[in-house]
Every structure is written in C-alpha cells, then in structure tokens.
Write a structure and sequence with these properties.
The chain is built from ten helices and nine strands. The protein is an alpha/beta fold.
C-alpha cells in the first residue's frame, strides 16, 4: 500500500505541476524522472495503462525521494488497488468515479479526480477531492477557469490538457491550484531521440513561468 508520508506538500507547492508519463518504457521513465528532479519539478504521475506500471512506480518512488510519484488515468477500484499496491502516493483520474474518490478520502490518499462541468467539479470537491482536475482544459481555456473560480472560489482547480509553455502563466494568473502537463512538458520528440539535455532546457523554460508562491489551502490529508 502507499506510504502516505511520501507525499510532500512542500515539494508540490514549490512547483505545482503534475508531469504525466504515459506509455514510456521503464528506462525512459527513469530518465524523465531524473530530468524533472534536476530542473526543479517535484510531482509526476505514471498512467495506469503504461506497460509495467507497477514496477515503474515502485522503482521511481525508491529512486527519487525528492519526487512525489503517483498513478494517473485511474478509472476503477481495481486500478486503484493496482496503483496503491505499486506504492503510488497520490491518484489522478480522468473521470469522476465516486468509489475511487471516497476510498482515497477514507484512506487519506491525495486524489485529483477529473471533472468537466461545474456540477461535476462541485460534486468531486464535495466528495473530498484534494483538488479537481479540470479535463480537458484544451477545450475550455483560461476564461472557463476564471468563470468557475468566480462562484466557486473554494475549489482547488488543476487544469490538464492544453497547458503549455506559452499559456501556463495565464492559468496561474487565473487562480488555479496547479496544472497537469503531458507532452507539452515532456516533449515526445526529445524523449524519442534520447535528447535529455534539450528536454531539461525545455523544462527549465516551463519552470521559469511558475509563480514563486502557489497553492495552499487544499484539503490536504492530516
């Protein structure tokens, strides 16, 4: 099961970006995790549909104590079991599955469930979500996040999908709690080419767009 003490909120707040590793080999995941750690990022998820995901999460958790390592694309209770058995310290979902959320809340596992509409976002928060993953943000944009934040300022939002180097600052200016980033952060062309030096340069450029102080006030486990 997950060691809940592994999730470090100070780490997360210092760089409130969840890096999404999907479908990469174990070797590539390790190289990417190393690049993230060296450039000031602190939180990554390995999607549950990645081959050998359990071994990868377990290995990264041991190898990189300066990173929060979680599981993403968790849609079912069985997948949640797989993630926790592997040692994931937090869980991200693309959908609103109430059983997954409530189990995480009961067991004090940070959970970022996916939601799209105001009703889904509000429901996820009321179920006890640590923060709500607004997905896909590419279809909604920054103005949508501002519109949600107006009447529901208490809800911590983590837009995912469509966040990039060019617009990440505008998302934080809109008051989001954090963001999720996949290929726009972890460029597949550079990873495929094994060009981790250029990947680190790109990561540093994204990191420079983050506000100095972010987050705070989420429903953090106690």
């Amino acid at each position: 099961m997950a060691d809940f003490s592994k999730f470090n909120w100070t780490f997360f707040h210092s760089a409130p970006v969840v890096a999404i590793l999907r479908g990469l080999s174990a070797e590539a995941c390790e190289r990417v995790a190393e690049a993230l750690s060296e450039t000031g990022f602190t939180t990554l998820e390995v999607t549950i549909n990645t081959p050998d995901v359990g071994q990868i999460i377990s290995h990264l958790s041991r190898q990189f104590p300066s990173l929060n390592v979680g599981a993403g694309t968790v849609c079912t209770p069985d997948q949640l079991d797989e993630a926790l058995t592997a040692g994931a310290s937090f869980v991200v979902t693309p959908i609103l599955d109430e059983e997954v959320i409530t189990r995480c809340v009961t067991d004090r596992i940070p959970v970022f469930p996916g939601a799209y509409t105001p009703t889904e976002i509000y429901r996820a928060w009321n179920l006890g979500a640590t923060a709500v993953k607004v997905f896909p943000a590419s279809q909604l944009g920054v103005e949508y996040l501002k519109d949600i934040h107006g009447p529901l300022p208490q809800i911590k939002l983590v837009p995912t999908g469509g966040v990039s180097l060019e617009n990440i600052a505008s998302f934080f200016a809109a008051g989001v709690y954090g963001v999720g980033m996949g290929s726009s952060l972890l460029r597949s062309d550079l990873i495929a080419a094994g060009d981790y030096s250029s990947l680190k340069d790109h990561l540093r450029r994204v990191r420079a767009q983050l506000p100095q102080h972010s987050g705070g006030g989420a429903q953090e486990p106690t």
